[in-house]
Amino acid sequence: MPQKRQLHDRFFRQAKSEGYVARSAYKLIEIDDKFKLLGKARKVLDLGCAPGSWLQVLAERCGPKAEILGIDLKAIEASVPTHVRTLIGDVTKIDAVTLPIAPPFDVIISDMAPNTTGAGDDLRSAALCREVLRLCPALMRTGGSLVMKILEGAETAEVLREARGMFEQARMFKPQASRDVSRETFLIAQRFRAQDQA
Prior knowledge:
CATH architecture: 3-Layer(aba) Sandwich
Oligomer: single chain
Distance between the termini: 56 Å
Strand content: 25-35%
């Protein structure tokens, strides 16, 4: 068995043994180990949160005093503590005023991906990322951080450029837990700048 496949089988087995609902938990763990985004976060928003493995990581890393909100079209499968709240809904239609946890958020994370068809997946992924960036001025505190998945393609560099216009620092990072054959990578943006919402 190829070494990379063995690595991913290990992540799958490890997720089962450690109680995570999906191996994607280790992507967020590795991102946080490298960039130290979650330890001091008191309000965190998880966009596209199902099946819930990232919410499980947030609950562990942010602690019981943090307010954590996950939004997805589907209900989560994970068991999460009471300080983690979930909302079934379309993340592109978020109304900041009616959220059960009031903004601004210290960290916004998104593991969202389009339904893949093979053709144009990267463009749909870039469009989702732009939706997340569009939400940031209304939902994120100045100085906040963003993590979002993007499928590498024709628009990746432009989405990164747009993020750099909103954050002091933005870069791409591919965790070991991402499959080698996958085009997914993660945009990590830090120190959100105040935006003119007029």
